Amino acid sequence: MKITEYITALRENIGKAREQGKTVVLIPTMGYLxxxxxxxxxxxxxxDEDHExxxxxxxxxxxxxxxxxxxDFDKYPRNxxxxxxxxxxxxxxxxxxxxxxxxxxxxxxxxxxxxxGLTNILCGLQRPGHFQGVTTVVAKLxxxxxxxxxxxxxxxxxxxxxxxxxxxxxxIPVKLIAAPTVREADGLAMSSRNSYLEAxxxxxxxxxxxxxxxxxxxxxxxxxxxxxxxxxxRQKINKExxxxxxxxxxxxxxxxxxxxxxxxxxxIALAVHFGPTRLIDNILVEx
Length: 287
Ligand code: AMP
What we know:
By secondary structure, this protein is of the alpha/beta class. It has two domains: 178 residues, HUPs (Rossmann fold, 3-Layer(aba) Sandwich), CATH 3.40.50; 90 residues, Pantoate-beta-alanine ligase, C-terminal domain (Pantoate--beta-alanine Ligase, Chain: A,domain 2). The protein is built from ten helices and nine strands. The protein has a six-stranded parallel β-sheet with strand order 1-4-3-2-5-6, sandwiched between helices. Helix 9 packs antiparallel against helix 10. The site of adenosine monophosphate has 15 residues, from helix 2 and strand 5.
């Protein structure tokens, strides 16, 4: 596996892979890798078994644009040594680890990409500017790498829908793949931020997923009122954890539109704070 900090070196390597007829796959991350990240490299690598030769680019970049001023940019966990061995084991071909100056040499008058709908709900409400930071960096990565395929996790469901919209609106020729959420054995969605949790919080955190499952089974038993399902989830979290709910929402899965009566495919999404640590999770439910 190669590692580079530089756009020119990255492009040279990708160019060679493309000359060999390989399909270029991009997996953007902020590092501190866990199996949620690595599962995407493994899923991509499986395409080789289908006789499609692929070249996997994984980026690790803690993108300052997507953090608010009071957020955890400075203390976001970083460990490049560990990340590079994990990426290599997972079959990544090249790890792109740019410095901030490489990505944003002119930070002052930066051109940014913003998706106008979809970003003023859910996580966008409490994190103004967050999605603009995400779409800006992802658009840059798409232009740097020119991937045929890009993987994003379903764990960040709103992010996936926003990026899908950007790709559509800007006619970016990339195939997006949503990777299923990878969980710890007790159900907690893997996240680099789980490392912030104190022991007691870590014990309670899987209840978020269990509350989503309870919501899903209430729907399966015939409940059609989203507010009843949301309330059930809220009650469980409030009763069984010390977490402070930011939101529990049920929206249309394809476009995050509002749902009056539960039908079709919906996403149940939540954000909960355990002390300074903000966790998100979601599940898709077919009604
Ligand atoms: P991050 O490093 O948190 O920015 O995540 C990088 C990519 O990995 C994003 O597309 C995330 O949605 C995805 N991801 C993060 N956690 C998980 C998980 N537990 N399961 C699947 N994908 C994940």
